[in-house]
Design a protein that fits this description.
mainly beta, 5 helices
């Protein structure tokens, strides 16, 4: 907690370069840190299964505590002609305020609804947008919103092309607009730094018509970014996607009923710049139609931990999909795959190489760790699998560790706890270990699928101290 507060403190100190009176910013920093500390303490005690609204409100960083101070000392968006009445178009007023800000200044949005009809671009560094907890943006519905992403060809509400930009309490009603909400960084520029999106509720925005899918929040080639305390409800596309970034942190975020993918870590194509050392911590995702989590395209050092991922009302492709990565750690998570009406094979956790020609092209999956998770499936099918590891004919899953997991089948007697599918090539999965796992309720504990060369399962890979409860056969 201390390092997080110090990081925030130094960031706000950097804002002083604008020339605004030093005393004002000393007081502002003090109040921001107090509010930030209160938020962190509240969030430690909150339950991941709280409703979306109550969780997001807990993430509001005690806005009321210093709202009046901001009102008196920041630049009020109303002074630039904006009206928070939900009817007046405030796009030009917001862009005017941003363009006229000195580096390090704050734009404050008092309570109200601010309609946006086209793209807003932030190209100045050290800009802060701060929304009152009772303020929100309302995006013009589909067909009426105008604007383009500065890199891609589809509309985006906020384009951030500068370092040290922060948005607090990003509350948005999307009105089912088929647009991206926010894109930071991009493919053709040098990496930007220190973008922060802290707090807010975002609903009913995005685009998902497979195979085309757009980001709600896209962080691209942006180092040391922080996305914290966001809640997404009934959005479409990729909820929070991080591509080509270094040392980015996504924490305390929730995604509900995403039509697409909730959390995504991967690579920018075609320049082949991939994520490195990105942390996803204390997340909650429920009923995403494609995946709750996808880690793909050469992402290196991605960590997902202390999170809950639930599929129970929507049948996903896979709940957790780890495809063609290096040094991925999936640790201390709860994965619930409770699909009582499903009779086909859909696995809670799937690990495999990336075998398409898109972007970086085919790539193996190396040094993945699945550690200390609870994985629950409720699928009445002989094809049910807890953890599915799939090799490819010309690619490998190499150096895989599955350790200290509890893997449960609630439909007792069906499926396989851990399946190693060699896809007819004995060397497509190698150097793999299972240690100290507890596998309960499956027909088969662990299975070596397809092309076995008449080898005994336990002679393939390393298997130690695994415990089997109420299974028909331990190893096949």
């Amino acid at each position: 907690m201390l390092d997080q507060l110090v990081s925030l403190l130094f960031y706000e100190v950097d804002l002083m370069v604008s020339g605004i009176k030093f005393v004002r910013y000393v007081i502002l920093i003090f109040l921001l840190v107090l509010g930030r500390q209160s938020y962190l303490l509240e969030n430690q005690s909150s339950l991941m299964m709280n409703s979306a609204v109550s969780r997001a409100n807990a993430n509001a960083a005690n806005t009321d505590f210093y709202r009046q101070f901001l009102l008196n000392n920041a630049n009020n968006i109303l002074d630039f002609g904006a009206k928070g009445d939900g009817k007046s178009d405030t796009t030009l007023a917001i862009q005017r305020a941003i363009d006229n800000m000195n580096s390090g200044e704050i734009i404050y949005f008092p309570a109200g609804t601010y309609r946006i009809s086209s793209t807003i671009t932030i190209q100045k560094p050290n800009v802060v947008l701060y929304l009152d907890s009772a303020a929100k943006f309302s995006i013009d519905d589909n067909g009426h919103f105008k604007g383009l992403n500065w890199i891609l060809s589809y509309p985006t509400v906020f384009n951030i092309n500068a370092s040290n930009v922060s948005i607090y309490n990003l509350n948005v009603e999307g009105n089912n607009a088929e647009v991206s909400l926010l894109m930071a960084g991009g493919k053709t520029i040098s990496a930007i730094e220190n973008v922060k999106i802290i707090g807010g509720i975002i609903s009913n925005i995005g685009y998902y018509k497979p195979p085309i899918s757009r980001d709600v929040i896209g962080i691209n080639k942006c180092n040391n970014a922080v996305i914290e305390g966001l809640t997404l409800i009934n959005c479409k596309g990729k909820g929070i996607r991080v591509l080509g970034c270094l040392n980015t942190v996504i924490r305390n975020c929730s995604v509900y009923n995403q039509d697409g993918i909730a959390f995504y870590s991967g690579e920018i194509s075609p320049i082949e710049e991939y994520n490195q050392n990105c942390i996803f911590d204390n997340l909650y995702a429920e009923d995403s139609s494609e995946h709750n989590v996808k880690i793909s395209r050469r992402a290196q050092g991605t960590i997902f931990r202390n999170s809950t991922f639930v599929s129970q009302n929507v049948i996903p492709l896979h709940n957790i999909f780890i495809q063609g990565t290096k040094d991925t750690v999936f640790e201390n998570n709860l994965v619930i795959h409770r699909l009582s009406n499903l009779t086909t094979a859909v696995s809670p956790v799937r690990i495999e190489p990336h075998d398409t020609g898109y972007g970086s092209g085919p790539v193996s999956n190396e040094r993945c760790q699945i550690v200390s998770n609870t994985i629950v499936t409720h699928v009445k099918s002989t094809a049910a699998v807890g953890v599915y590891v799939k090799g490819r004919e010309d690619l490998v899953v190499d150096d895989l560790l599955i350790k200290n997991n509890l893997i449960i089948q609630e439909e007792v007697g069906y499926g396989v706890g851990i399946l190693f599918d060699f896809n007819h090539v004995d060397s497509s999965i190698k150097n793999y270990s299972t240690e100290n796992n507890t596998i309960k309720g499956f027909n088969i504990g662990m299975r070596r699928g397809r092309y076995t060369l008449n080898m005994i399962f336990k002679d393939c890979g390393h298997h130690e101290n695994n415990k089997f409860i109420n299974v028909h056969a331990e190893y096949i």
